[in-house]
Design a protein that fits this description.
Elements: H1 3-24, E1 29-41, E2 53-60, E3 66-77, E4 88-99, E5 102-113, E6 123-133, E7 141-151, E8 154-165
């Protein structure tokens, strides 16, 4: 008897999840997005209250090749049980991607292990939501997953997601 309400709850949850993307992208053409970002810390001109900014380049499909700029507007310590807990932070901020066809602004929220010299050190992962766009990207929506590591002082990240244009 206990498993039946659980099955009904799972069915309702699955229906809710399935309906969200359709409602969010109604009337838009969605395409798979893949790219690579290579960025470095931005020291001069960083407007983050936490001093966490990056600037770099993006090379991807769907015309998404150009420059990136990230500015953190929220940081919190990680749980104590995280690998390299004292060196791991959770963050949120805005990434602006500028291309010759327009700009995309994304809300980027993730986790970054800032430790060096450990197996997990330098790893980061985030989920991103497209907040706004200009030019070709005006009215764009979509979600991205970004993950990578620090290599020789640079952040090297793979981007995978969906870009939906009107």
């Amino acid at each position: 008897m206990r498993s039946q309400p659980f099955r009904i709850s799972l069915a309702v949850l699955a229906l809710m999840i399935a309906s969200v993307p359709a409602a969010a992208h109604s009337g838009k053409k969605c395409k798979k997005l893949q790219a690579q970002i290579i960025a470095a810390p931005l020291v001069t001109g960083c407007t983050s209250p936490f001093g966490l900014c990056t600037t770099g380049t993006i090379d991807g499909n769907q015309g998404l090749s150009g420059t990136t700029r990230f500015v953190a507007d929220g940081i919190t310590p990680s749980p104590a049980t995280a690998p390299d807990g004292a060196a791991t932070i959770a963050y949120s901020g805005l990434i602006r991607i500028t291309t010759s066809s327009g700009t995309l602004t994304l809300r980027d929220t993730g986790v970054f292990d800032t430790a060096t010299g450990t197996p997990a050190g330098g790893l980061f992962a985030s989920f991103d939501r497209i907040d706004s766009g200009t030019g070709r990207y005006a009215g764009a929506t979509g979600t991205l997953l970004i993950g990578g590591r620090t290599i020789a002082g640079r952040l090297v990240a793979d981007v995978d997601g969906e870009l939906c244009l009107p």
